[in-house]
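Work Package 4 report. The design task specified in the project plan requires that, given a folded chain encoded as structure tokens, an amino acid be chosen for each position. We show below one input record used in the internal validation round.
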């Protein structure tokens, strides 16, 4: 699962569809423990039930009903594919639209904590909240946060009569120093979430303001200006033979609540028009604008990358924390591959525009273009610095915590969490001065690079 923008705490589900289970495979009914993710699954008689576990708790999570061989659908329409792998005691689960599988191992029965009533009250909520981060959050060391000291500071402030308002304030104070926009505290309709200092998280209002500015100034002399996918994708032909492709997110293409298959179909319709045979043959360069991108499905980004290469390559590898007591232990990294897409493909120079409002799947797509064969240059400001899918952990008092537990690795094994992916060429991005002077320095730099250097950074 992935938050599209943490401020809205909107869930988007990410990746490619896995093959369905067949009648010849061992049954998937039973109890399964997931590698990483603090999760146990019970699958019985067509019902899928998640249990969110820590060493101090077990709470019921999401449920789903069987809708096909090995497939289960949640009440919000999310499709889960579960299958065995090489025998009856090992399996995998994929969230439709997500990149990578989650490995399952059969266990004999539910943990004891899952079979008895969960402790309630403010202290129990505090302990589950703290423990969920303690066992799953990967970035305490990188951010210089002593999470045990945080517990020692804040737990004495919680007692049996602590109100929800007070607990919400305590939880918000605890996670504030992380400055992680994939971390959120939720109580009903109110949400505490924040981005990296000096950045602005994407909102619908910001997207509208920026899009209006770009159309009026950058695209004043453009041709074939067209919106696709519910307005989330914009394309225009620029004077001089370059193209401009703006992506404001990786979801919502087919309307709210539409399944991943419908989102993918809408994306393909857009790409078939934008990257037509005629256009891919004449384009001299392509600007991809991700500067206000709220994220969504990583798999949709991988899909777009497949229309920008003739050569398969690894976009990144993904791993999750996998030991509650040892933050240095992870699941085996799973490579995510970019494979050349069907239909015409553009393989020429690309300039990618990014900034602090490039978030989540907008960043994984940026990362997926880093090793793209051909000339690719990044221009603007560093991205937000949040890549992981987001875990939603229920608390005993009805509140929720949202946190990342994964790392997206480069070829060298490093990550860009916290700092964001840096540009090759630094330019201001939608500052007040840029708006006031009706100037878009990053766009202008991209045009200059593509026209004069063919997408190189020299």
């Amino acid at each position: 699962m992935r938050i599209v923008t943490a401020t809205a705490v909107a869930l988007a589900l990410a990746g490619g569809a896995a093959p369905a289970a067949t009648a010849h495979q061992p049954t998937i009914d039973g109890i399964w423990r997931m590698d990483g993710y603090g999760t146990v699954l019970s699958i019985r008689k067509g019902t899928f039930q998640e249990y969110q576990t820590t060493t101090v708790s077990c709470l019921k999570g999401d449920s789903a009903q069987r809708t096909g061989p090995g497939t289960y659908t949640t009440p919000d329409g999310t499709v889960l594919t579960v299958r065995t792998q090489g025998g009856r005691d090992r399996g995998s689960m994929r969230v439709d639209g997500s990149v990578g599988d989650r490995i399952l191992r059969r266990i004999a029965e539910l943990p004891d904590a899952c079979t008895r009533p969960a402790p309630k009250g403010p202290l129990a909520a505090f302990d589950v909240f703290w423990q969920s981060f303690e066992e799953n959050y990967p970035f305490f060391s990188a951010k210089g946060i002593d999470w045990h000291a945080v517990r020692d500071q804040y737990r004495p402030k919680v007692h049996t009569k602590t109100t929800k308002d007070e607990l919400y304030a305590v939880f918000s104070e605890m996670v504030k120093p992380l400055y992680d926009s994939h971390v959120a505290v939720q109580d009903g309709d109110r949400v505490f979430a924040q981005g990296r200092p000096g950045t602005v998280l994407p909102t619908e209002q910001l997207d509208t303001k920026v899009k209006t500015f770009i159309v009026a100034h950058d695209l004043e002399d453009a041709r074939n200006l067209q919106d696709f996918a519910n307005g989330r994708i914009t394309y225009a032909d620029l004077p001089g033979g370059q193209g401009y492709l703006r992506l404001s997110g990786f979801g919502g293409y087919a309307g709210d609540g539409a399944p991943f298959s419908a989102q993918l179909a809408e994306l393909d319709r857009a790409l078939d028009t934008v990257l037509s045979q005629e256009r891919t043959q004449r384009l001299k360069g392509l600007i991809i604008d991700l500067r206000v991108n709220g994220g969504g499905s990583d798999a949709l980004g991988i899909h777009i990358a497949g229309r920008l290469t003739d050569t398969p390559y690894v976009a990144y590898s993904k791993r999750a924390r996998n030991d509650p007591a040892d933050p240095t232990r992870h699941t085996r990294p799973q490579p995510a591959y970019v494979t050349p897409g069907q239909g015409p493909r553009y393989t020429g120079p690309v300039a990618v525009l990014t900034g602090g409002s490039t978030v989540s799947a907008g960043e994984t797509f940026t990362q997926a273009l880093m090793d793209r064969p051909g000339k690719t240059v990044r221009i603007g400001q560093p991205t937000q610095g949040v890549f992981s899918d987001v875990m939603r952990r229920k608390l005993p008092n009805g509140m929720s915590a949202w946190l990342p537990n994964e790392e997206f690795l480069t070829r060298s094994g490093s990550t860009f969490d916290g700092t964001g992916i840096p540009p090759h060429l630094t330019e201001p991005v939608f500052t007040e001065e840029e708006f006031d002077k009706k100037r878009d320095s990053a766009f202008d730099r991209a045009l200059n690079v593509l026209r004069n250097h063919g997408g190189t950074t020299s």
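The chain has eleven helices and 24 strands. Validation will be extended to a larger panel in the next phase.
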